[in-house]
Write a structure and sequence with these properties.
Largest sheet: none
Shape: globular
Structural class: mainly alpha
Helix content: 55-70%
Number of domains: 1
Radius of gyration: 15 Å
Number of strands: 0
Number of helices: 5
Length: 66
Amino acid sequence: MSKPASLNYGIPFPEEEKKRIVVNLYESGIGEEFIAMQLDLEIPTVISILKEYNIYKGKVEEEIAK
């Protein structure tokens, strides 16, 4: 089985690049709703990506911090 062309040149798949954008935007303080809107993703998808990177601070954690 051959590798996709994007792997042969070290270029990340668009999905991986989009995940990094989601993480970078979230870490810079942008809310998940706005990220979803800007990247044409569903909010649950954005939250799943953030959970995958263990950086999601859901509403429960926000309420505890208050």
